[in-house]
Design a protein that fits this description.
InterPro entries: HAD-like_sf (IPR036412), HAD-SF_hydro_IG_5-nucl (IPR008380), HAD_sf (IPR023214). It holds the Pfam family 5_nucleotid. There is one protein chain. With 546 residues, the chain is α/β, with parallel strands linked by helices. Helix content is 48%, strand content 10%. It has 20 helices and 18 strands. The strands form 4 sheets. Strands 1-17-14-13-3-9-10-12-11 form a 9-stranded mixed β-sheet, sandwiched between helices. A 5-stranded antiparallel β-sheet has the order 7-6-5-4-8. A two-stranded antiparallel ribbon has the order 2-18. Strand 13, helix 16 and strand 14 form a beta-alpha-beta unit.
Length: 546
């Protein structure tokens, strides 16, 4: 706080010789300087020729002048901050309300000319057909039962209720540590989202585990070369109940004082999920009661019919089996649904379907049985084909891949390779988007967000406050900012917030969505509102330097 010895000497000399201008300018510095013992020694040596009495008078005058200046500085600084805050409050109340966002809109990341798209491709699960929350609870229950009866987990797990609102899509699960969290687009952990089991973890604990709040990309994605697959990301509907089982088991073990290794729990749950899928338990339940597990979609047939009427070629690529897809599409579209599709690929094993060149296509019937033991050399409209790969698809169809739009729900399995490796235009179906838009359109959320942004501008523009009183005002502002950030987070999800944001940064999920999806929307039906020759333009958003 004190000035250098040389500067202090100049100041004191100026004051001692009665320089009023220097006294007014440097009185505060003189007061600060005299607080230091070393500076007092300098003062004594300099003032020997002035006499102790005169020097003390001059110092006292300088102190009084400095105190008066400090009082004025404190008062004027606090007054300025108070005035700015009141202006902010007025702006917050008077700012024009932004137009509401249409929850059925199509949001564009990359420019796409639909008139140039001759071919439309679709995933099946969670794209053409979406599922009810009853199916998520079914998966949770069956997984818990398998843990208890097959691997002898505590029977008390059967009494745990499924909470469909606890988790959100896009979270990362640390397999080794047993921590679930949200990560932003820059690999930073959003500290207040980290949970072990169903309980939040203190920030200090998180920092000690990860040596800070940053996670290397290799750990987030999994590095196959080094086998450092410590993290898995919750990317689809089926993952949510499975991960909730992991969290519930960890929570029960913690409360019961049972020692455990998180990785073992994750492995057992993953194996249970595989059994549910491979034995057909899940698919059989859906086929028996489609009205219970499949969301009604009356617009889907109209959408597909319109594409066909405009000469568009349609194809379907799914990892699910022929019988399951056939029953689901008959329920959603009609018994003649296969007449709409030029190519139907089942058991595709995405994402390897986009990468491999060795797996051949096999013709199968609607029950999944082989129709012949000969290789496939061409496609017949409305027929099922098992396996295969994208290179063969291109050879058989002769489609220009620059004129393909593929619609799917899984950012990695459906969209990443199709977009990056093959140049397809891609559309992501994100059902959660509809609810998030409804929330962001509420007056409470819009008011809190507007106030938060204005308050952050105040903090940005007042970082050079020098007085303790001014710093106290800024600290109050920071506390209010934290409160507003919390309010805008919990309205989406109490524990993890929005799937698209990590406070002011995009979430890791949102960043990947922007990278691999040309556009995204809440339902495939929303594309029906766009003319077939419509051009999807992304909005120009300013860069930080613009």
């Amino acid at each position: 706080r004190a000035t250098s010895v040389c500067q202090t000497t100049c100041i004191i000399n100026a004051v001692s010789f009665g320089c009023a201008d220097m006294n007014a300018r440097y009185g505060k510095h003189l007061l600060l300087a005299t607080e230091a013992c070393f500076c007092r020694t300098q003062l004594s040596s300099i003032s020997n020729n002035q006499g102790p009495q005169n020097t003390n008078i001059l110092i006292r005058e300088a102190q009084l002048s400095a105190n008066d200046g400090n009082r004025k500085t404190r008062a004027s600084e606090v007054e300025s901050l108070t005035k700015q805050y009141k202006n902010m409050e007025r702006l917050c109340l008077s700012s024009p309300t932004a137009r509401f966002t249409d929850r059925e809109a199509v949001f564009v990341n990359k420019e796409v000319h639909l008139g140039e798209m001759d071919v439309y491709g679709f995933d099946y699960d969670l794209t053409l057909v979406t599922y009810t929350s009853a199916l998520a609870e079914f998966i949770f229950r069956k997984t818990s039962h398998l843990l208890v009866w097959k691997w002898k987990y505590p029977r008390e797990l059967l009494n745990i209720a499924f909470d469909p609102n606890f988790l959100i899509r896009g979270l990362h699960l640390d397999i080794k540590e047993g921590l679930i969290m949200k990560v932003d687009a820059f690999n930073n952990i959003q500290a207040d989202t980290v949970h072990r089991g169903l309980q939040p973890v203190p920030v200090e604990t998180v920092k000690s585990v990860y040596n800070g709040l940053y996670i290397a990309s290799a750990l987030l994605r999994g590095d196959r070369r080094t086998e450092k697959h410590h993290m898995t990301q919750v990317m689809d509907f089926f993952s949510l109940p499975a991960v909730y089982v992991v969290c519930s088991v960890i929570e029960h073990f913690k409360k019961s004082g049972i020692n455990f290794q998180p990785e073992c729990i994750y492995t057992d749950v993953r194996n249970a999920i595989q059994i549910i899928h491979q034995t057909g338990l899940l698919h059989e339940a859906i086929m028996r009661h489609p009205e219970l597990y499949i969301n009604p979609n009356p617009k889907l047939r109209s959408f597909l019919d319109r594409l066909c009427s405009h000469g568009k070629r349609l194809f379907l690529i799914s990892n699910s089996g022929a019988e399951f897809i056939n029953e689901g599409m008959k329920f959603a579209v009609g018994n003649d649904w296969r007449t709409l599709f030029d190519v139907i690929v089942v058991g595709a094993n995405k994402p390897d379907f986009f990468r491999s060149k060795t797996t051949a296509f096999r013709a199968v019937d609607e029950c999944g049985a082989f129709r012949s033991w000969e290789g496939v050399s061409k496609f017949e409209k409305g027929q099922f084909y098992l396996g295969g790969n994208l290179d063969l698809l291109r050879q058989f169809t002769k489609w220009s891949f620059q004129r393909v739009l593929f619609v799917g729900d899984h950012v990695y399995y459906d969209l990443a390779d199709a977009s990056n490796q093959w140049g397809w235009a891609t559309a992501a179906v994100i059902p959660e988007l509809e609810t998030e838009i409804e929330i962001s359109n509420t007056e409470v959320y819009r008011f809190n967000l507007r106030r938060l942004m204005l308050l952050e501008d105040l903090l940005l523009n007042n970082q050079l406050v020098v007085t303790a009183e001014g710093q106290a005002v800024l600290e109050d502002w920071r506390k209010e900012r934290d409160h507003l950030r919390l309010l805008t987070k919990v309205c989406f999800n109490e524990h993890f917030g929005s799937i698209f944001r990590s406070f002011h940064n995009p979430s890791y999920f949102s960043q990947r969505l922007g990278q691999y999806a040309s556009m995204y929307t809440s339902s495939v039906n929303n594309l029906l509102a766009l003319p077939v020759d419509h051009t999807c333009y992304p909005r120009r958003t300013p860069l930080p330097h613009e």
